[in-house]
Design a protein that fits this description.
Order of helices and strands: HHEEEEHHHHHEEHEHHEEEEEH
Structural class: alpha+beta
Number of helices: 11
Strand content: 5-15%
CATH topology of one domain: Beta-lactamase
Oligomer: single chain
Radius of gyration: 21 Å
CATH architecture of one domain: 3-Layer(aba) Sandwich
Helix content: 25-40%
Shape: globular
Length: 385
């Protein structure tokens, strides 16, 4: 059997194993224990083998994971390399571009402003008496754009700018936010009536970042850091730089396996509110605990968290910045050239995050990364019901 055929066969076996266990765990959810319990030495060895298998089969230089029960970390570990050329070992302090795992953070920022009475989800974004009306002029005869609301941007139901080959966020990388938004409004007609069709939109979350800036009169990252991250005990998250020379302290090096993709040929900083943060997995655990109050007073009230986790009428699987399911788990994945990420919060009190510093040529890697984490949780006796 050739090397490629053997790798594909082994990948298939790995995914079948992981997805089978993940399906079982989702059918009989694990329950967070009253006391935080870490894995035994034997269980740690098993978790390390699971991580090594996924890294081997998807050719990932590094993998970093964090698992918590009721906001308390019970397993935080890193495997492989932050920089494989320099043989720099990956540590739990290394930071990754988290890509679209940024979206729950932006959503929480919007909902925090709503909770404080500084905006309403029904507010219009463009046009007369709107939030951004005096910042961006809608083109003539484009009243459809003026019907877009904050709620529609949060739920990807604004009717335009989907994440496909025409995604504005990956065009005209030399433009700043204002130039790009003006260009997109002028050249990108809505494909659907606002509020009636789900189409995942990076550009929509870019607009939400500008809404935050308009309402708060602060830069997006400054508001998020002061209002959400700092109170959650997070001090080392920041918006990523674009080039290898702009690599931040303790930031991994990114590797792409897809022909024609260059992790350092992107305007990541312009992606701030839809995919721009760098973080360690433990930071996402702290963020989740901060908004739901697992380790203290919640930043978002119970009513606001319900709003965040309530799906739109056109897509029962996506709410406001998070994917959701019928048992009230919520999560988000992220993918950029050189990056694959996932963060999960289960209804039983578990939360976890896992990041790798590559985007694989195999399209099923995010599914397997998700399944890996369910498998890890199911492999520790102290974490099972």
């Amino acid at each position: 059997m050739g090397e490629l055929a053997m790798r594909v066969t082994r990948r298939t076996a790995l995914q079948a194993s992981l997805l089978g266990v993940a399906g079982l765990l989702r059918a009989t959810p694990t329950t967070a224990q009253s006391q935080s319990t870490g894995p035994t030495p034997a269980e740690r060895e098993r978790l390390a083998h699971l991580a090594a298998d996924l890294m081997d089969w998807y050719e990932a230089p590094g993998l970093s994971v964090a698992i918590a029960t009721k906001g308390e970390p019970v397993y935080v570990e890193a495997f492989g390399f932050a920089d494989k050329e320099k043989q720099e070992p990956l540590t739990t302090q290394h930071r990754f571009r988290i890509a679209s795992v940024t979206k729950p953070i932006t959503s929480a920022g919007i909902l925090l402003l709503m909770q404080a009475g500084r905006l309403r989800l029904t507010d219009h974004v463009f046009g007369p008496n709107s939030i951004l009306g005096d910042e961006y002029k809608t083109p003539p005869n484009r009243q459809d754009i003026e019907r877009i609301t904050i709620d529609q941007l949060l739920t990807h139901t604004s009717g335009g700018w989907p994440n496909d080959h025409d995604d504005p966020m990956f065009k005209n990388k030399e433009m700043n936010h204002q130039e790009l938004i003006n260009w997109a409004l002028e050249t990108g007609p809505l494909r659907w009536e606002p509020g009636y069709h789900y189409a995942y939109s990076n550009f929509g979350y870019c607009l939400l970042g500008r809404v935050i800036e308009k309402v708060t009169q602060q830069k997006y990252d400054q508001f998020i850091s002061s209002a959400l991250l700092g109170p959650s005990g997070i001090s080392d998250m920041q918006i990523a730089g674009n080039t290898l020379a702009e690599r931040a302290a303790n930031e991994v090096k990114y590797y792409s396996q897809v022909a024609g993709e260059d992790p350092y040929d992107l305007n990541i900083a312009r992606m701030d509110s839809h995919g721009g943060w760098i973080a360690a997995p433990l930071d996402l655990i702290r963020f989740t605990a901060g908004i739901d109050g697992s380790r203290g007073n919640p930043l978002l009230s119970a009513d606001t968290r319900t709003i965040m986790a309530t799906p739109s009428h056109v897509n029962s699987g996506y709410a406001k910045g998070v994917f959701v399911n019928s048992v009230r788990n919520f999560w988000h994945t992220g993918s950029l050239p050189g990056t694959a990420t996932i963060a999960v919060r289960t209804h039983t009190g578990f939360s976890w995050a896992a990041f790798v510093n590559t985007r694989t040529k195999f399209e099923d890697m995010l599914d397997s990364l998700d399944a890996l984490m369910w498998h890890m949780v199911g492999s520790v006796d102290g974490w099972r019901a």
